[in-house]
Fold:
Amino acid sequence: MGMLRGLGLGSDAEALYRSMIRNPRGSTAELARRLAWTEARVREARGQLVTLALVRHSWEEPGEYRVVSPEVGLETLLTRQEAEVREYQRRIAASRAAVASLLDEYGELRCGGDGLDAERLVGIDAIRSRIEELAHRCESEVLGFADGGPQTADNMSASWPLDRAILARGLRMRTVYLDSIAGSPPSAAYARRLIGAGAEVRTVAALPLRMALYDRSTALVPVDPEDSGAGAILLRGTGLLTALYALFEQVWEGASLFGGEPCRDADGLLAQEREVLRLLAQGHTDEAVARRLGVSVRTGRRITAGVMRRLDARSRFEAGVKAVERGWLKAL
Structure:
């Protein structure tokens, strides 16, 4: 039973129709007895058959019903259904054409109609909307720098459905976070979740900026790396993307696998400690150092104080001089 459901027959209607085909004559009581149903159930199923023109009132015996032959009744239903399918397909085609037209119009508005390679996005809604589009269109890989240290709950909540969908499609995803996410249980859990879904995750002490690369053809970068509220820029173009891709690969090669134990280099320095030295040598403030490391100002000062103690330096200037003497800043 249920074979004719596609034509609009419920299971009861189909059972009754088959019974009436085998025994064309029969009152409501007889049909109920034959099917072991109540008379109300028979009347309800027969009402559906009448609506579908598979059963009609008898011309000879008022109050009685006669079954319409399958050759006529089912063929009529099939013809009606085929017409409905053709109309549905026509509406789908019209909708696709309308969507294509709208996308073309939207693309012209978005690019200013003059083929610009850069587009400024202002506001979190605009940025996340464009990220959704880029993730949907991506065909091979997504590369990213996630600066700022511990990720916000809102950011992780918005990112997970897109990240999961990208990985489910078999695309490659490589992301570089800051070492400091290890101190944030929610951020660390998110990184492990990504790895479990198939992503590759590494960490470094500091990142030059927040960035996302899609298929090596489109990049999303901040307008001002020091001010996330300034918005983002969508970049397209071979030259621009080649440079950003090279930057990503350079950072990726020097990054550590997420989850590993912090390692000291040949000078006995952790990655964060060497980065602090570099930033201090460039004259960055405590606040700027903390921001680049993705840690609190208090934690940044603690790391700075530890480096100064190791150098037996009483000031930042003295720390810089002694770091150069020891060769700790030779690569800077």
User: Anything to note?
Assistant: The two ends are 79 Å apart (CA to CA). Confidence is low (pLDDT under 50) at residues 111-116. The first strand starts at residue 55 and ends at 57. The CA atoms of residues 117 and 237 lie 6 Å apart.
